[in-house]
Amino acid sequence: MPKIQNMYLIQFFKKSKSTLIFLLFFTIIFVPILYFLVKPKSQLPVYNPVDVNPRLVDDAVKHISRDHRIGEFHLINQQGDSIGSKDFEGKIYIADFFFTRCQTICPIMAINMAELQEFYKDDIEMKFLSHSVTPVIDSVPVLQAYAVKNGAIDGKWEITTGDKKHIYELARKSYFAVLDEGDGGEQDFIHTEQFVLIDKQKQIRGFYDGTDAEEIERIKKDVAILQSEE
Predict the structure, then answer these.
(1) What are phi and psi of 96, to 5 degrees?
(2) Is 176 exposed, middle or buried (0-12, 13-18, 19+ CB in 10 A)?
(3) What H or E segment, with its residue span, contains residue 14?
(4) 213-229 and 106-119 are packed helices; what angle lies between their axes, rounded to 10 degrees?
(5) What is the largest CA-CA distance in the chain?
(6) Long-range contacts of 137-140 (CB under 8 A, 24+ apart)
(7) Do the beta carbons of residue 99 and residue 134 sit within 8 Å?
(8) What tens digit of pLDDT does each residue of 100-110 get?
(9) CB of 170 within 8 A of CB of 71?
(10) How many whole angstroms separate alpha carbon 226 and alpha carbon 206?
(11) What is the C-alpha separation between 170 and 172, in angstroms, rounded?
(12) Strands 74-76, 204-209: pairing kind
């Protein structure tokens, strides 16, 4: 009896050989392709004022739930050149707020920004934008020295000064980078470790601790996701 069963099995596999080969080929080749096509793609969130800690958002924009964009800006970079929103058209960029005399978090942030600059040195889509929160003190010559010290590449990493009220308004109404309130006046002062990721449409796509090495690696992963979206 077992011999008869074995004969039937042998005959079955002989007849089904082509079918089995096809199924094996389909499993190896097409199943991974099918999985790739149907699996949900990673996508970064788009942050609007209502999505952010209310303490970070200026009262004037707290109600906005969609289509938030970084406002128009006009600044002076380390070369003494005027730069603005137009210089970031079609770019992904990382923004932060610092001051050259800072001896606590800013040096670490500068090191990490320099690391990101090096990582994206040959990526023409990527730029970096640092805003001085003490713009009166951080004149162009001071920024030039700071840029040289930290290896900033002109045109890649813009280290900027400008009107204090304008910079503080950007921090509070565009980037949502600081918890404290103020009007950008003489006694107003902000200090934050936030790095903010901005896409080509000037939308906020991520917030990161600029002093944390693990967060810097997360930025790299998120930029890759962002670039795959576009």
Answers:
(1) -150, 175
(2) buried
(3) helix 2-15
(4) 40
(5) 100
(6) 137/99, 137/100, 137/101, 138/99, 138/100, 140/76, 140/78, 140/79, 140/80
(7) yes
(8) 999 999 999 99
(9) yes
(10) 10
(11) 6
(12) unpaired
The helix/strand/coil state of 195 is strand
Q: Enter the pTM of the model.
A: 0.80
Rounded to an integer, what distance in angstroms lies between the CA atom of residue 27 and that of residue 64? 49
Q: Are strands 126-132 and 92-98 parallel, antiparallel or unpaired?
A: parallel
Residue 23 to residues 10, 14, 31, 55, 64, Cα–Cα distance (Å)? 18, 15, 10, 58, 54
CA–CA gap between residue 197 and residue 206 (Å, rounded): 5
3-state secondary structure 119-185: HCCCCCCEEEEEEECCCCCCCHHHHHHHHHHHCCCCCCEEEEECCHHHHHHHHHHHCCCCCCCCCCC
Would you say how long the chain is, in residues? 230
| Distance of alpha carbon 66 from alpha carbon 186, whole angstroms | 33
Under 8 Å between Cβ of 62 and 50: yes
The first and second tokens of residue 169, run together, are 């308004």
Q: In this predicted model, what pLDDT tens digit does every residue of 116-150 receive, in sequence order? A: 999 999 999 999 999 999 999 999 999 999 999 99
Residue 2, amino acid: P
DSSP per residue over 202-229, as a string? S-EEEEEETT-HHHHHHHHHHHHHHHHH
pLDDT along the chain (230 residues), means of 10: 55 56 56 41 90 88 94 98 97 97 96 98 98 96 98 98 95 87 61 95 98 98 93
